[in-house]
Structures are given as structure tokens and as C-alpha cells.
Amino acid sequence: MPPSSWFSQMRLMRYAANGAMQAHHHDRPSLCLVVDGGYQERIRGRADWHRPGEMMFCPADEPHAQTFADTGAVKILLDPRAGTLDYLRGHLPLTEAPFTGSVQLAAIARRLRAELCADPADSAARLAAEGLAMEALAEFARHAAAPVRVEPWLQRAREYVHAHACSGFALEDMAQALQHHPVHVARSFRAAFGRSVGDMVRQLRVAEAARLLRETSRPLATIAADCGFADQAHFSRSFRAAYGVPPSRFRRERR
Description:
The protein is α+β, with helices and mostly antiparallel strands and 255 residues long. The protein has 2 domains: 7-143, Sandwich (Jelly Rolls), CATH 2.60.120; 152-253, Homeodomain-like (Arc Repressor Mutant, subunit A, Orthogonal Bundle), CATH 1.10.10.60. The protein is 47% helix and 23% strand. It contains 10 helices and 7 strands. Strands 1, 2, 3, 4, 5, 6 and 7 form a 7-stranded antiparallel sheet that branches. β3 and β4 form a beta hairpin. α2 (103-116) runs antiparallel to α3.
């Protein structure tokens, strides 16, 4: 898409399942917004898994490597202009490669992808894309922080949540698997990842439901059950809160 006043380029990128990119660097900084799938990024001594609704900053000349999930990944890459970088520096320690995630960013990512895939002659799509990218930028600046070095047991905690989000679990079961007290798990998880265990579970369930709506013809009630929602009404409320539309409309617009 043509450049905007905040970004010199906005690109939709797709990555193959189980692919990998060896350590490399870029001569310009970039912002990445995950739309679908996921990947692990190794940067500044960390190894972080990024899922739909997560946004991260990669500094210029910073070595990093990536390994993609068995679902592959779809990302939106934003190349910030000098003024955009100045704005971010006023809010975040950019040299630490900060990142954040939220259901709001997940919804923005879906809408931004749709605008980037629109007819290039559609000037309204270009304007809409720039507005959504700026909305994502504001969300990122508001909530991202310099990531702390996550202890190994907290990395296992995050993996546990990703593995069991849709099947459901009790905090006590997770704590027992990690061999830590439930209160300690809950507090440490929020401090490390910027959201509670429940918030991450909700985001993962909604993201999986969105994938099933796009890729399958399963009834809504079946998707609700498969993704761990109590019932279809609960599923519809949670989905609409994240994406701004009910599941049935989301499916129609993407078929």
C-alpha cells in the first residue's frame, strides 16, 4: 500500500507452516502486528511466542530469529517514519524490543488486513488502513512496556495456557503442574505478560473461534463448545466484544 504520513510502508506478509528464519537484522526499524497463526521470536536474549493480537517493535540492526508455528503466520509489517519513532520514544524504551497484545489489537489486525487486501484503486481503503494502523500504534504505545526476562517456569505457564485454553482448566491445576502456589502463579503471570491468565485464555479462545469461522462450516454452537465457551450466547458476546460484529456476520463477510 502507498506510504502514509506515519508509515513509509504497510505490508501483509504470509509465512509457511513450521518455517524458520535464521538470525538476521534489518537496517530499518519495524512494527509487526500478528493477524493469524503464530511464531517464536528470539531477540535480545528472549524467546517469546507471538499470537494473533500481539504487536511488537524490532529495532534497526537488532539480530533476531524466528520459528513459525504449524499453522504458519500472517503478519502486518509497518515501517515507521521518523516522526512516528519520535512519538514512540516518548512512551516506550524501543531499544528493548517491546511488545504487547490485546483483544483490541486482534480486532484491529483483522480489519486492517481486509483493507490491505482491498482493490488498490479504492482510495477509501487506503484512508481506512492508515486510520487503523494509527489506532494500532496508539494501543501499542499505551500498553507496551519493556519485556522482562521471563523465568523458565513462567514460559512453561504461558505454554500451558496456549495448550489448554480451549479445553479449559482451573488455576489450581495449572499451579500444580508448575509446582507453584496459585496466588503466586496469578500475580507473576500478570507481571510477566501484562494480562491475567483469564484474559489470555479469552483472547486465545476468540482467536481460535475466528479461525474456525473462516475455515470451516461448523455450526456456531459447535464452535462455541470447541473453543471452551459456556454456551453460544456467551460465545457471541465475547466475540462481538473483540471484533465488533457477531460471529454470523464475521463468517459471511469472510466467505
